[in-house]
Amino acid sequence: HPPLPLLVFRESGEDVKINGYDIAASTQVIINAWAIQRDPSFWEEPNEFYPERFLTSCVDFKGQHFQLIPFGSGRRSCPGILFSTIGAELALANLIFVFDWALPDGARGETLDMSEGYGLSIHRRNPLMAVATPFILI
């Protein structure tokens, strides 16, 4: 789920041909990260929420493999990639360590509605509710 469906505009520096398309010099190009990350030629069941697919995948999310580009790619990739990945891992590890997590009212993960809402950014259509119970060491 990229935070923004479209990446920053790029401008071609010279005439170029990409996949049979002629792109003239000084043409502004918009990269659709949402479509790239849901390409069925790269991903099996691309519209399904299936995070386990990354456990055995060798896809590099840092912009070297173009199946997944959450931080952009090339010279204009996000300068905060290292900070954000370390910060997210640290925050997630602390939350997992300190709390026991459950779905409310005995709900099951298979029944969660993972549909997306659209707008300036991509977000879940329905909020995810989870019950956090403090983990107490005795």
Describe the structure.
- With 138 residues, the protein is an alpha+beta fold.
- It has a domain at 1-78.
- The protein has helices spanning 33-36, 81-98; strands at 10-11, 16-18, 21-23, 28-29, 99-102, 116-117, 123-124, 131-134.
- It has a two-stranded antiparallel sheet with strand order 1-4. Strands 2-3 form a two-stranded antiparallel sheet.
- The radius of gyration is 19 Å and the shape is elongated.
- It starts with 9 loop residues before the first strand and ends with a strand.
- The mean pLDDT is 84.
Give me a quick take on this structure.
The protein is an alpha+beta fold and 138 residues long.
Topology, element by element:
Blueprint: E1 10-11, E2 16-18, E3 21-23, E4 28-29, H1 33-36, H2 81-98, E5 99-102, E6 116-117, E7 123-124, E8 131-134
Antiparallel strand pairs: 1-4, 2-3, 5-8, 6-7
Binding site for heme: 78
Keywords: Heme, Iron, Metal-binding, Monooxygenase, Oxidoreductase
GO molecular function: heme binding; iron ion binding; monooxygenase activity; oxidoreductase activity, acting on paired donors, with incorporation or reduction of molecular oxygen
